[in-house]
Amino acid sequence: MERKYDVIVIGAGNAGLAFACTATKNGLKTLLIERNVLPGGCATSFVRGRFEYESSLHELANVGTKENPGSVRQLFESYGADVNWVNEENAFRVIADGEDGYDATMPAGVEAFADKMEEIVEDSRDSVIALFDLAKKVEKAIAYMSQGKPDPEVLMKEHADFMCMASYSVDECLNALGMPKKAQNIVKTYWPYLGAATDKIDLAHYLIMMSRYVDGSPAMPLMKSHELSLALDKVIRENGGEIWYNTEVKEIITENGKAVGVKLENGEVYADFVVANCFPETAYSKMLPKEAVADKAVKLANARKKGELFFTVYLGLNRSAEELGIKDYSVFLFNSPDSLEQYNSMDNFDESFVIVNCLNTVIPTASPKGTCTLFLTTMLSERAWEGVNEENYKSIKNKIAKRMIELYEKKLSVSVKPYIEEIVISTPSTFARYLNTPHGTPYGYEVQPWDTMIARIMNLRNEQFNENLYFIGAHGDRADGYSSAYSNGNSTAGRILKEVKKNG
Ligand SMILES: Cc1cc2nc3c(=O)[nH]c(=O)nc-3n(C[C@H](O)[C@H](O)[C@H](O)COP(=O)(O)OP(=O)(O)OC[C@H]3O[C@@H](n4cnc5c(N)ncnc54)[C@H](O)[C@@H]3O)c2cc1C
């Protein structure tokens, strides 16, 4: 057995790419293996007719500006990865149906966001500002905890506010801050980006995500998310790393439970460490030899709830955004102002919320002149798919897409259907085929009261069941999303580098 690499990475999703950048930058001999012919996993684009579609990115949190860079921009800069970032002015527009419904366009930036909220909901400003202050404290405390082995005394002394509220759900936190109900509802608009109900999401998780969108100057790459993935691919190669596309890892090879390499269609490759950008349960059920899989590992993977399933409609329209009267980049369309009802809407094809993005409003060159693209997303629970079979799949798929388009037309008073030149519909099966995740979820495991971001960070070591085998990705400690996956890939490389240093 010839060991050729320090580390083999299975999968070039966002986490795999960030891992490989950090590893190669620090001198680890790295091989990155990807099933698809392109890097990025979710972070890619595809072409139909004369349109190139962004495949997943609505917005990337915490990019910041050149003058005031956020953690994602800093990470890319530290790698020397060139990206043309385009910042967004507004955080979002949200339209919620129902008796206490609203139509609110919220700007990015804490002060502007709080001012706008005060305009919409009297006496809400102080509690909104208090929320963002708390978010800063939470971010500091989590950064401290992520360094490993946090000292309870330091936590109590230096992170007292965080310790008082750490166990709160989002709902409990907003109530404790005395925020008026309508302002709470608007503040909770981002919950689909975590795919969990606000009475269950831990405050740390939500606040970090929300403040990274509102305060962290969200952005998109000029050339769609493929630009990000290509920039990271280039860094890895320049640092001496190898990338094998169109190559699937079939098995993880172990010796006495310890990961030592991977099996491919035609051969084996060995390394000191194996890092998997795929779900733990996929590895336990399909890639590791039975005797190397700990019962505890399987129980934990089964106990976790898989993230929600995506359904996306990509439209290429033969009119410009201006001609069609489309002004907003990002609009959330909810069936109710109540976030629990919004969450439960995912059980029903006819009611699920829809998020619509028109990239041309931020990047006019995102499609050919005189055209624009629309990107409509809904999320549906596994329950919603019960009863769908080979016979009715196509008609249900078309029915969901039609409802989403018509909802947008009705709520925004924009005519879309007569101008559709291209239409692509991605169902959970499409995502499953491309990403190799269970049921196609791009969201890892849904956070639960027992499975919060803090619990995951504290249990990182306990959850490593095979020596020298690490998991990274949307199912990791930071959960779903681009910035979480980059951060998780980067920090896991840091853990392995420490290990290498310790062992000389
Ligand atoms: C429609 C949509 C919209 C989204 N919008 C946003 C958004 O606006 N903002 C945001 O932050 N996040 C968004 N997300 C979520 C975000 O894209 C994901 O959470 C994140 O990119 C997941 O990254 P990951 O590292 O887990 O890798 P994944 O994207 O899951 O990629 C894993 C990679 O591993 C490869 N792989 C798996 N098994 C093997 C194997 N055996 N051998 C070789 N390769 C393998 C796969 O082919 C894949 O390329 C969206 C997702 C979707 C689908």
Would you give an account of this structure?
It is a single chain. By secondary structure, the protein is α/β, with parallel strands linked by helices. The protein folds into three domains: 224 residues, FAD/NAD(P)-binding domain, CATH 3.50.50.60; 109 residues, no CATH class; 135 residues, 2-Layer Sandwich (Guanine Nucleotide Dissociation Inhibitor, domain 2), CATH 3.30.519. The protein has 18 helices and 20 strands. Strands 1, 2, 9, 10, 11, 12 and 20 form a seven-stranded mixed β-sheet that branches. A seven-stranded mixed β-sheet has the order 7-6-15-16-17-14-18. The chain has a two-stranded antiparallel sheet with strand order 3-4. Strand 1, helix 1 and strand 2 form a beta-alpha-beta unit. The longest helix has 22 residues. The mean pLDDT is 94. The structure holds flavin-adenine dinucleotide (FAD).
